[in-house]
Amino acid sequence: MSVAGITAENAENLPDIEKQWAVKSFHHAETYFRLVSAVHPRRIKLTPIDDEIYAAFREEFPDLVLENLRELEDFKSEKAKAKWRNFIMKYETKVEDYNFGTLLRNRCGEDYGPNNCFFVTRFQFFCIEIARNREGYNDVLHADKN
């Protein structure tokens, strides 16, 4: 895809654009953490197709440990990136902004912080947080705040 002659291959990483994405990602993370702290996580619905996403995610990644994610091994290694890419593309037309960047917590029992988050696609965030909410890993966040 090309916009005004700019493609993914020749696009520059402009500092102002990167800052805007960082701010947007931080606001998304902050909003989500407030939500998961205020509403019981098992009652949160992140997309219209949470059930489908959860079932497909757990079928594709049955052994992914949600309590303490390993950024490099689980998301950024060549093998992990290829597996995620193939999985994510199935939802390209089903989930709005599926490939937008957002922050994901490594350790689910803690707030976002410099040593407890990394950058992922919005769809990866949905997969992990839907599973954490359904499997009870985020319950401690609600219990601690209320």
From TrEMBL:
Residues 17-142 form the Polysaccharide biosynthesis domain. Pfam families: PBDC1. InterPro entries: PBDC1-like_dom_sf, PBDC1_metazoa/fungi, Polysacc_synth_dom. It comes from the Eukaryota. This is Polysaccharide biosynthesis domain-containing protein. It comes from Polyrhizophydium stewartii. The lineage of its organism: Eukaryota, Fungi, Fungi incertae sedis, Chytridiomycota, Chytridiomycota incertae sedis.
